[in-house]
Design a protein that fits this description.
Blueprint (H helix, E strand, L loop, with lengths): L1 H12 L1 E7 L4 H4 L13 H13 L7 E4 L3 H7 L11 E2 L16 H7 L1 H8 L14 H17 L5 E6 L1 H12 L16 E7 L2 E9 L3 H9 L1
Parallel strand pairs: 1-4, 2-3, 2-4
Antiparallel strand pairs: 1-5, 5-6
Helix pairs in contact: 3-9, 5-6, 7-8
């Protein structure tokens, strides 16, 4: 009987995180590296944010956290409607900083910085882009620490966490035990819904790339 009681308590205190990458920007569409550069959503991204809110309209959400960068805040804003919630900004959810690489495409950089881009492509944990870039291992620690801290603040709740592609890559690895340098085999679509559970400081994947709402949003923005 005591064991059953313990299991029930753990289930009650597990926190569900809805992990959401921001909607599309013009730099996404042009395959340019954004990092900490503060880029707004384009028309497709704005439509994706509205479609995301509609898809989650019947889902209980106890808190909405966002990276403080504009593209994430614009994606999170429609989720607040009718919920009586205030957006909670957290710099720990920011994208990885890419220093002087920001604004360029990988193809452009590969011509000018072949060795650095090869380390980046191999997912070298110690690689940081020149000009103030962030090491991959430091980025991973920052993002996972932020997500676990947020989950711990809402035991038993459901929390929307709006962040960035690189950040969600880190959280997928955390939830599945993937190494930092392992090749990515999962997608990171703008404004798709990804779900993890956090209990006792451990993250578990329960659903990834729920994007049924996105096709209509893209069609609407292109019409």
């Amino acid at each position: 009987m005591p064991a059953a009681h313990t299991d029930e308590r753990a289930m009650i205190e597990a926190t569900q995180l809805l992990l959401i990458r921001h909607g599309e920007t013009e730099w996404n569409a042009a395959a340019r590296i954004q990092g900490h550069t503060d880029i707004a959503l384009n028309s497709v991204g704005l439509a994706q944010a509205e479609a995301l809110a509609a898809a989650l309209a019947d889902t209980r959400i106890d808190a909405v956290y966002s990276s403080d960068l504009l593209r994430a805040r614009q994606t999170a804003a429609p989720l607040l409607r009718g919920r009586g919630l205030t957006m909670l900004l957290d710099r720990g959810l920011r994208e990885r900083a890419f220093g002087s690489f920001e604004g360029s495409s990988f193809a452009e950089l590969a011509l000018r910085h072949a060795d650095a881009c090869e380390r980046w492509r191999r997912r070298d944990p110690a690689f940081a882009a020149p000009g103030g870039g962030e090491r991959l291992d430091a980025f991973y620690a920052r993002v996972t620490t932020a997500a676990l801290r947020i989950a711990a603040a809402h035991p038993g709740g459901c929390v929307a966490l709006v962040s960035h592609g690189g950040a969600l890559d880190c959280l997928h690895r955390c939830a599945t035990g993937q190494q930092l340098d392992a090749p990515r085999t999962w997608v990171l679509r703008n404004a798709a819904i990804n779900r993890v559970l956090v209990a006792e400081g451990r993250m578990t994947l329960i659903g990834w790339d729920d994007g049924a709402h996105l096709d209509a949003a893209t069609d609407e923005a292109s019409a």
